[in-house]
Amino acid sequence: MGTGGRSGVRRGKGNAEGVTAGKGNADGVATSPTATAASASCQYRCIECNQEAKELYRDYNHGVLKITICKSCQKPVDKYIEYDPVIILINAILCKAQAYRHILFNTKINMHGKLCIFCLLCEAYLRWWQLQDSNQNTDPDDFIRYAKEWDFYRMFAIASLEQTAFFIGIFTFLWVERPMTAKKKPNFILLLKALILSSYGKLLLIPAVIWEHDYTPLCLRLIKVFVLTSNFQAIRVTLNINRKLSFLAILSGLLLESTMVYFFQRMEWDVGSDCAIYKSQDF
What we know:
This protein is mainly alpha-helical and 283 residues long. It contains 11 helices and 5 strands. The protein has a 3-stranded antiparallel β-sheet, with no helix packed on it. A two-stranded antiparallel ribbon has the order 2-3. Helix 2 packs across helix 3 and helix 9 packs across helix 10 (243-266).
């Protein structure tokens, strides 16, 4: 895969000492203001070995950049700073750990809240669509399907509660396992942001409904698997734990979410969940 390098940007030639922080400004080297401010307030991460780094690159005169070399693995701290965003997105879709580390640790994304709300709206619309489709009336003068806004708000609330139960299940498992898996307290705020960002696959729910066809249940299942796979990778990268614990954390979240769905069904609420969609169609 090509690097998608930009003009005026080139990698260093293997000399880690010349690119690491704190070596002075010899030979006309100037530390970029962005890298200096970031190193004072936070730490970057090497996308290969997950070690902390003070900066991602050094800014030489005449706009020539040199990527910082990791002291631990002797590889570029973040090769993705030279990549085109489309290539980064493709690598994230492929669930590559390096792409996730780049997005979670070495970039500033402040759209977690908006993305969470939009994903919940997509899921609520899917459930509302399934509910209205099962109750449709052949009377051409019947506008109930388009007028029941309360049903949509109820689907949004139910989707929010189920999503919250999923996150609580993950956090509870990781908190119980924390003394055995980590020497320091895990950053659950960062983990929450990582889980929200890795749930971007739910945005595919809207095209799955718009392009309605006989394989819609299969599409919904594939979207669910993709979202869970992304959540799994986000947990593993954020907390730097093994695959087994990440998988068990996902199972714990699904267990609590399923318990919430069962509770709603016992209350005889139309939750419009994926399971209801699968049962209502011949698949």
